[in-house]
Amino acid sequence: MATTDPVPKDSVPNDFVPAGFEPPRSLTTDRFRLEPLGPQHNEADRAAWMSSVEHIRATPGYPDGSWPRPEGMSLEDNLKDLTRHEAHFEAAKGFTFTVLDPRDNDVIGCVYLYPTKEEGHDVSVQSWVRASHADLDGPLADALVAWIDADWPWERPYRYGR
């Protein structure tokens, strides 16, 4: 007989960040700018990752090859995904940022800061950039380490071998 969880997952207390913590909403460098990912990024986000499926799958942190799906997804399904990430951000259950080119504000990647099950770590840090911006993979990952150290409550990020 199947059982169901009597407590809806969205009502489970959040201990990912301290109560009252106000998450940073941007990071700006001369090569990229981060802002919270949301539905307003739908078309540009989908275009970014669909243009770079193989590059993303080869990026540290995406080892199982399940994302992105080679066949892509519809704009409607991508919008649902962005809406989910936005809700997680507002509930402080995870923080997803779009990576923008500061010259034209085009989406060139994404950053995910989520709880991790990796022993000895307190946050999972994943990022990807478009294949056309592959030279930003390392600088973005390095900037995230400094940003987490300076502005976030975590001390032991899990960086997927970076």
TrEMBL record:
Region span, Disordered: 1-29
Source organism, top-level taxon: Bacteria
Gene3D superfamilies according to UniProt: 3.40.630.30
Annotated protein name in UniProt: N-acetyltransferase
Source organism: Ornithinimicrobium faecis
